[in-house]
Amino acid sequence: MQLTEALRWTIYYRGIALVSFLLGLALAVTGVWFGFIDLVMSQIPGQDGGGSIEITNIVLGSLLILFGFTVWQIGKTAAFYMTLTEATESEMADRFDSQTVKSEILEVLDDRLADIHADVETTRQQVGRLGVDEHAESLTTDLKDRADTTPEPDTNDDRPTPDQPTNTPPDNQ
Prior knowledge:
Blueprint: H1 3-43, H2 55-95, H3 98-149
Helix pairs in contact: 1-2
């Protein structure tokens, strides 16, 4: 979350909390005014009190003060909950925009596919080289095998074959 967004949500929260505080304060001040003003005025020297303080006014004032405190606390908690929920939803909507997520996933998949394609191409080249080497080796091995199994003509043998002329000197005895 950026600083401006955080500041906006903070002001929003503080505004709602301030409204609940002002409502609670107004209720409490009203409770003090109706319930305890006569009691306070009777305690000030030189003031002529009304003589009788009604218990109902004190109870009503106390209830208004308590209600004002409750309004303030519940309002503050509701403001926190509302602000936190809305800020989280807003941030998640920005962060997990469906188009943004799709494009990020596609970028990762494209990168992976490019890597796989490069690996396949490298493997294909290596297999091709290995195949050529094996083929050359098998040809060499085949030639050696043929040479070992076929009898070579004896070149040291001086016997002529029937179709060859002989170069031996005639016996003159």
